[in-house]
Design brief:
Blueprint: E1 18-30, E2 34-41, E3 44-51, H1 56-62, E4 70-79, E5 92-103, H2 120-125, H3 127-130, H4 134-156, E6 160-161, E7 179-181, E8 189-191, H5 197-205, E9 210-218, E10 230-239, H6 243-262, E11 272-274, H7 275-282, E12 296-297, H8 299-302, H9 308-312, E13 315-321, H10 329-339, E14 350-354, E15 360-362, H11 370-380, E16 387-393, H12 395-412, E17 423-427, E18 432-435, E19 440-443, H13 458-461, E20 470-475, E21 478-485, H14 490-499, H15 504-518, E22 525-531, H16 532-540, H17 570-576
Parallel strand pairs: 3-5, 6-9, 11-17
Antiparallel strand pairs: 1-2, 1-4, 2-3, 4-5, 7-8, 9-10, 10-22, 12-13, 13-16, 14-15, 14-16, 17-20, 18-19, 20-21, 21-22
Helix pairs in contact: 4-6, 4-16, 7-12, 14-15
Bound molecules: aspartic acid.
């Protein structure tokens, strides 16, 4: 037996027992007569003591131990005179009688501590060392626990986990595919799934009316903090359901995770916010509901008074920063600089101070009477002591910028605490999105999303106005999942492909197998996919999904630890019948 206990297990009640532990040397302190070693494993840290007076030879041996050596020790558990209340094993130490060096280690390139001196690149290159840090262990354990709770809950609700293939044909999620050449079918390629979308729909046709899968998906997109070329979804599908049956079922999963993982009881139905309202009030389709600060439309009130920028604008909107009327010039300038960042795209910011005596002072006083300003204040529900912040321009872009400003002000005013969770459903997304570049419509979600049946007549007149029976789960401004009621009728599916500019031939080539399946009795169905990495990151209070993935890729899509993507041999190219061009 390598060990009788783990390094996180021993307490005062084990005093006097003889134990054997194994693990890594976290640190070693040589105090002359005594050498103290902190021994670490996945479960915790235990202090070992080597005493010169008791066993000189052993103590000298212990002095050779350095960081990350793998050792096995045996000895007696003793009460510590100098207790460490910060760790669970802090009341005891082990008086060592035997030491066995299982494997020496070279000095690690960074310290294996929560506060490490290792930069991102180094940590990624030596990810196996990074993963030894307690903070990383915590993330990986959280991920594990969430996966187990997902499985437990879904199983309890009659969902069955079915694996779907990884070598498939192009998928409908609209990103670029990763492709894999086929040796046995020269000149032909598999695509890696952007999601199991078509397979889960086929499972519904096959009669498996409640499916889920914790599954890797692959999208060849430019990367950001919350994106990885391969990521994990909790993919779900149900048959014989309407939208609200779907939302209820998946809300149940979210509530289960809140409760079991965070100990947070959510005993209300998640609000359902239509997409149009989300955009109008929050400037985004993933609103953070931890605070109000809604966007107010001042277009009619502020236009036509001779202030050129407003007069020319399609839209003028404002948010009210409660209690900020005394912001200094410098603070207002900083907020203005924020909205003018290229990624926010604002052209400027107008501020209106509502002084504590009720008088109003703005940066555009020469164009507006006090009554005008008062009408803005009333519209925005501002009160003495508040600060109105206005932006103007193209409607969509201005709303988006105001949405960003709202979040920024939320941060400044500390209205977005980490331990408060505000889930909601955003519903009724547009079905189609017009793309100026290619001059055609794209499916906002994917082409199998059902339109709202009341909107069918708009297909002929104004396809951009057709709403989708689609929904997103949003928590604290993070899109955690998205799904829809699906089209299950061959003819409606054909109409959808037509609106997406897909010829019948193209549609058949790409998705003929699904259309064909619909002819053999497809039940009404719908589903969702949750971004598992994002959900774990949210629960861990982290922005980057990389910290909750054991072996992630860097921003250039590289795994710097195994050094890939990498070249393949001439033989491999020959076998595949592929040649690289310059
Ligand atoms: N397959 C979709 C996605 O990956 C989710 C869904 O519609 O279920 O976004």
């Amino acid at each position: 037996m390598y060990r009788t206990h783990t390094c996180g297990e021993l307490r005062s009640e084990h005093r006097g027992s003889r134990v054997t532990l194994a693990g890594w040397v976290q640190r070693s302190r040589d105090l002359g007569g005594m050498t103290f070693v902190d021994l670490r494993d996945r479960y915790g840290i235990t202090q070992l003591v080597f005493n010169m007076d008791i066993n000189r030879e052993l103590c000298q041996h212990a002095r050779k131990l350095s960081r990350e050596f793998v050792i096995q020790v045996s000895g007696k558990v003793a009460e510590r005179s100098n207790k460490n209340p910060k760790i669970p094993t802090g009341d005891i130490e082990i008086l060592i009688e035997e030491l066995n060096i299982l494997n020496p280690a070279v000095i690690p390139p960074f310290t294996i501590e929560d506060e490490t001196d290792g930069g991102d690149d180094l940590r990624m290159k030596y990810r196996y060392l990074d993963l030894r840090r307690p903070i990383m262990k915590k993330n990986i354990m959280l991920r594990h626990r969430m996966a187990q709770e997902v499985r437990k809950y879904m199983d309890s609700q009659g969902f069955i986990e079915v694996e779907t293939p990884v070598l498939i044909k192009t998928t409908p999620e609209g990103a670029r595919d990763f492709v894999v050449p086929s040796r046995m079918n020269r000149g032909q390629f598999y695509a890696l799934p952007q999601s199991p979308q078509t397979f889960k729909q086929l499972l519904m046709v096959a009669g498996y009316d409640r499916y889920f899968q914790i599954v890797k998906c692959f999208r060849d997109e430019d990367l950001r903090a919350d994106r990885q070329p391969e990521f994990t979804q909790i993919d779900c599908e149900m048959a014989f359901v309407e939208r609200d049956d779907l939302l209820d079922a998946f809300e149940g999963l979210a509530k289960h995770l809140f409760k079991t993982i965070l100990g947070v009881e959510v005993n209300y139905s998640f609000p359902k916010l239509p997409y149009d309202e989300a955009m109008e009030n929050y400037g985004t389709d993933k609103p953070d509901l931890r605070f109000d600060m809604l966007i107010h439309d001042l277009t009619t009130l502020a236009k036509g008074k001779g202030f050129g920028i407003f007069d020319e604008a399609e839209y003028i909107g404002a948010i009210c920063a409660v209690g900020c009327s005394e912001y200094s010039r410098k603070e207002v300038d900083a907020i203005t600089a924020f909205v003018m960042r290229p990624q926010i795209g604002g052209k400027g910011l107008i501020s209106v101070r509502i002084n504590s005596d009720g008088t109003i002072k703005s940066s555009v006083d020469k164009y507006y009477q006090q009554e005008d300003l008062q009408s803005w204040v009333d519209m925005a529900g501002a009160r003495p002591g508040d600060l109105l912040l206005l932006m103007a321009g193209n409607r969509h872009a201005t709303l988006k910028a105001l949405g960003e400003l709202r979040l920024e002000m939320g941060n400044r005013l500390e209205l977005r605490p980490d331990d408060l969770y505000k889930p909601l459903w955003v519903v009724d997304f547009p079905l189609l999105e017009w793309d100026e570049g290619t001059g055609r419509y794209y499916a906002m979600h994917h082409p199998f999303t059902s339109p709202k049946l009341d909107d069918m007549d708009k297909f002929a007149t104004d396809p951009g106005k057709v709403k989708a029976n689609a929904y997103d789960l949003v928590i604290n401004g993070v899109e955690i999942g998205g799904g829809s009621v699906r089209i299950h009728d061959e003819n409606l599916q054909k109409l959808m492909f037509k609106n997406l500019g897909l010829s019948e031939r193209e549609a058949k080539e790409k998705f003929g197998f699904l259309m064909n399946a619909f002819r053999y009795g497809a039940p009404p169905h719908g589903g969702i996919a949750f971004g598992f990495d994002r959900w774990v990151a949210l629960f861990a209070g982290l922005d980057s999904i990389r910290d909750v993935i054991a072996f992630p890729k860097n921003n250039a899509g590289r795994d710097v630890m195994i050094d890939t993507p990498s070249a393949i041999s001439e033989e491999q190219f020959d076998e595949l019948g592929i040649r690289l061009t310059d």
